[in-house]
Specification:
Elements lengths: L1 E8 L2 E8 L8 H24 L4 E6 L2 E6 L4 H20 L4 E7 L6
Parallel strand pairs: 1-5
Antiparallel strand pairs: 1-2, 2-4, 3-4
Helix pairs in contact: 1-2
């Protein structure tokens, strides 16, 4: 199963962590979800950092990506909202392969 955690601070999106290997299930649906999740995560991270030049920290490890905004950025926040909405629809269609949650950040980092 792939798990996605979306971070919020003061009610505003400020990042995410996505981890897991959905495609290990070996079914066609699992492969579809894995491809959709991977593509959406990389599109979001690349758009935020390379196109929008948002101040963000990104780390990628085997089967895991974490992105955190270092400073508020309205366009970046909208893109993160879009990723979360996309994942919510995928989770609704494929609950066996994707689980999402929200984590409130209380520290001073954004």
């Amino acid at each position: 199963m792939t798990e996605a955690t979306f971070f919020r601070r003061a009610g505003r999106p400020c990042g995410f962590t996505v981890s897991g290997h959905t495609d290990l299930a070996g079914t066609q649906q699992a492969k579809l979800v894995c491809a959709a999740v991977s593509s959406a995560v990389y599109l979001t991270a690349n758009t935020l950092t390379d196109v929008m030049k948002a101040d963000a920290a990104v780390s990628v490890d085997d089967g895991r990506m974490t992105l955190r905004l270092n400073a508020p950025h309205a366009g970046a926040e909208a893109l993160l909202e879009g990723l979360e909405a996309h994942f919510a629809q995928l989770e609704e269609q494929y609950p066996t392969y994707l689980a999402i949650k929200t984590e409130v950040q209380h520290d001073a980092s954004h």
